[in-house]
């Protein structure tokens, strides 16, 4: 068994162009809300306007209320990495369909020239494999983690991000979902029982996972003492021209939404829809980008600058909790990443703690409701999150 207290995971933010009906329906709904308000203030109108012009939707799935990790939360599709995602047999498939191992390795690795997190440099999942020759034959993490995200997306949503390469040619945004419903149900069951069936599926379809379409986005490690399960999770983002058909598995996930970042953040803030802090933070970053093309351009260009692994450091106060992130003046210089200590509890208020520092990068939690507070320039060219409008009074004091 692995000695590290977390498993590696891979997750996928799927961004798809909004359909016309969604855009019209959304605008109508928003207009009704706006017109029914007594004296809507400028701030609200502005945020409303911004929202209606968002021309893409993000896929969020609701985890089953029986899940052992983040039950009932809305998350991006994803899950833990399996050894089969690293299988050397994937090289055979890629080569058979026209992608030479050396070329593919070079192509994928050369996409990033910035910092690499430990799950790329020294994956935990391979620590138990003691045959060096065998490890040398496995997929590189940059490819294996993408396959894991695509496999988990298939298991949870039925969306198969596969492409039929044509002599090594490929289309970045293509989805070659050629499975009929019956086959989909059958294969999904097989893959869920044993991840290596995903390779069998690809072999049978003569398709490969569309690893090229996934841009590296960020890496989040579950903080200590939040629960017994921890994950080091790679977040990828992919942009699809059309919303693919989603067929839920109704086991791991029981509901889905195609939503704008503002929609789901508002539901979280106003209606208690449960979002875990990393999901909340990433959605708040995406609020900076209203256009599908902007998201795609940003993700592609930012990827070159690399990523860091962030582990939030949590403590509780008289009126809530703070999840500190790197860049915040209060973030410890040497955080304890493997400890089991309970979360410390202090008598101060969130506002008092906020006033003690200049550079903020934190999530404040009041009950389950998150607020991002970030006033510093982030590393790796990344976007700062936009705070929710209902917290504007708090934010304006920064
Ligand atoms: C989980 O959800 C199902 C269906 O919505 C419901 O019947 C059940 O009571 C819920 N269980 C828990 C533990 O909340
Ligand atoms: C692999 O790369 C080499 C050198 O860049 C090139 O000559 C060759 O055509 C490539 N092969 C394939 C199958 O892409
Ligand atoms: C190590 O892995 C290689 C390649 O997978 C295999 O050929 C070899 O038999 C393995 N050696 C041992 C001692 O298991
Ligand atoms: C999954 O399938 C592979 C290939 O058929 C097999 O080698 C492996 O033992 C299976 N794993 C489990 C957990 O059943």
TrEMBL record:
Question: Where along the sequence do coiled-coil regions lie?
Answer: none
Task: Provide the protein name.
Answer: Nudix hydrolase domain-containing protein
GO cellular-component terms in the record?
A: mitochondrion
Known PROSITE patterns for this protein? NUDIX
Q: Where is the Nudix hydrolase domain positioned along the sequence?
A: 31-282
- What residue stretch is flagged as signal peptide? none
Which one of the record's GO molecular function terms can you name?
Answer: metal ion binding
* Keyword Chloroplast among UniProt keywords: no
> Which keywords annotate this record?
Hydrolase, Magnesium, Manganese, Metal-binding
Q: Which InterPro entries match?
A: NUDIX_hydrolase-like_dom_sf, NUDIX_hydrolase_dom, NUDT19
Q: Give the family this protein belongs to, as stated in its UniProt record.
A: Belongs to the Nudix hydrolase family.
Q: Which organism is it from?
A: Tetranychus urticae (Two-spotted spider mite)
Q: Which cofactor does it need?
A: Mg(2+); Mn(2+)
């Amino acid at each position: 068994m692995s000695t590290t207290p977390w498993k590696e995971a891979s997750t996928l933010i799927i961004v798809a162009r909004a359909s016309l009906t969604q855009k019209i329906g959304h605008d109508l709904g928003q207009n009704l809300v706006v017109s029914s308000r007594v004296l809507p203030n400028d701030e609200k109108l502005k945020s409303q306007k911004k929202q209606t012009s968002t021309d893409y939707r993000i896929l969020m799935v609701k985890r089953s209320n029986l899940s052992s990790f983040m039950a009932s939360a809305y998350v991006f599709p994803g899950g833990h990495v399996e050894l089969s995602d690293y299988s050397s047999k994937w090289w055979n498939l890629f080569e058979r369909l026209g992608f030479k191992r050396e070329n593919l390795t070079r192509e994928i690795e050369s996409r990033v020239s910035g910092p690499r997190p430990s799950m790329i440099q020294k994956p935990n999942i391979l620590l138990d494999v003691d045959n060096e020759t065998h490890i040398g034959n496995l997929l590189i993490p940059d490819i294996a983690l993408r396959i894991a995200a695509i496999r988990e997306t298939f298991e949870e949503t039925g969306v198969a991000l596969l492409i039929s390469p044509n002599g090594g040619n490929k289309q970045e945004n293509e989805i070659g979902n050629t499975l009929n419903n019956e086959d989909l149900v059958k294969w999904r069951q097989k893959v869920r029982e044993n991840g290596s069936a995903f390779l069998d599926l690809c072999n049978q379809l003569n398709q490969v996972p569309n690893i090229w379409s996934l841009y590296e986005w960020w890496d989040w490690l579950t903080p200590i003492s939040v629960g017994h399960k921890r994950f080091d999770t790679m977040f990828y983002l992919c942009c699809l021209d059309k919303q693919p058909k989603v067929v839920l598995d109704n086991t791991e996930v029981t509901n889905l939404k195609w939503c704008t970042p503002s929609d789901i953040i508002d539901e979280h803030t106003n209606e208690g829809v449960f979002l875990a802090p990393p999901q909340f933070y990433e959605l708040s970053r995406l609020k900076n980008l209203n256009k599908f093309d902007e998201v795609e351009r940003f993700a592609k260009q930012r990827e070159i600058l690399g990523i860091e692994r962030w582990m939030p450091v949590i403590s509780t106060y008289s009126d809530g909790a703070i999840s500190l992130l790197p860049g915040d003046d209060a973030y410890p210089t040497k955080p304890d990443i493997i400890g089991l200590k309970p979360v410390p509890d202090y008598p101060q208020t969130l506002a008092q703690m906020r006033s003690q520092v200049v550079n903020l990068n934190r999530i404040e939690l009041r009950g389950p409701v998150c607020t991002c507070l970030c006033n510093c320039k982030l590393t790796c060219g990344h976007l700062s999150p936009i705070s929710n409008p209902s917290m504007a009074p708090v934010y304006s004091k920064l």
